[in-house]
Amino acid sequence: MARPLFQALPGTRDILAPDSQRMRALVEVFAEEAERAGFGQIVPPMFEDLGVFTRIGESTDIVTKELYDFEDNGGRRIALRPEFTASVCRAYVQSRPVPPWKSWYAGPAFRQERAQKGRYRQFDQVGAEAIGSHDPDLDTELIALAVRFYQRLGLTDVTLLVNTLGDKADRPGYLDALRAYFGQHLDALSEQSRTTLEINPLRVLDSKRPGDAEIIAAAPVLLDYISDEAAAAYRRVIDGLTALSIQFVEAPRLVRGLDYYTRTTFEFASNALEAAQNAVGGGGRYDGLVADLGGPDDPGVGFALGVDRTLLACDAENVFGAVETAADLFVVATTEGTEALALTQQLRSEGWRVERAYDGRSMKAQMKAANKSGAPVALIIGDTEAADGTVSVRPMAGGDQVVVSRSDLIQQLKDMLP
Ligand code: HAM
Predict the structure, then answer these.
(1) Residues in the chain with pLDDT < 50?
(2) Per the confidence metrics, is the pTM higher than 0.85?
(3) How far, in Å, from the CA of 10 to the mean position of ligand 1?
């Protein structure tokens, strides 16, 4: 086949049925769990003033390297969202809902990443944010929501990693300790990490380069530098997770890829995926972000889960598969009139999933299509049926074909179909 004139761009793809149906089903599961937990849906715009996203942080790749930004016809600097959290905070500042404001979302986000399996330039997230409360029980409830969601998909091989990044005021002391520590090991650090060290020593902890791992493993941990209040909040989350029998691993050097985090941070790693793309979701507190966006000094906590990666994890664990939905009925027409068209619409309005053949194909070809559709019953309208106001009803699994009058048809089908 000749190469098509246009193809979806690198890092983007068409999601076709039944995979698209599976993706929608995943969002429906998430929506149900989020709404049970008191979150209402927010549908923010997909693009915002560039400034909304630069607040995510200056040492964050998604801002410095991966943002899709452009100038619109009005000369505004615009960016496609690389994530939802900044938009949700902007919406909070703009609408001033009564705190704590709990919202969930689903939709695409955009990052100019090196495209590979599990890493796309347009990918989908589902997520939830709670703004306006310091209560660490909210952190625990959010984690529990994500855990419950994975459970409902049937995923079992997902590890929850938990850490605290303390408060902004705890940071300088810890950053000094990190600078001093990494300073002693400069020669062994990768060039990339040496650069990162100058911009934000915290992010060196996030390096996945093999050579860095050993040095990072012995780096000072933030827990030793945080205030009593932040430590108590962390303890409360740990106790909460334990009380809810949620399995977790404390990861004292987990920092995550975004700069806005304070206090609780967490990540979900699928052990069924390759290590480079095994983060199926993550989140944490971002107590200064609302203020950075010009709002009150209100705290926030939330998470986002990668839909594409979560579905890859489902594939790897062989759960939550895509299902081809069979038709309930197939209409076969060998008459020229409009009877088949009318019958098909009538049956669809009764709530059945109805397929038919087009282009005046032969009876044989139509029966083949009926078979393929998975419909248990075919309805045949030929010239005789059209003239008599009847339909021939043929069970596809075998059995007698019967002629039924149009007025009795619906009842007859209700008796036949499950
Ligand atoms: P994040 O860790 O950047 O966090 O993204 C969350 C999840 O989105 C990742 O764990 C991953 O599954 C998925 N993801 C990210 N980038 C890609 C990509 N290029 N291709 C496929 N999947 C991807 C956030 O976005 C934060 N807003 C989470 C949050 C919410 N924190 C507080 N509230």
Answers:
(1) none
(2) yes
(3) 19
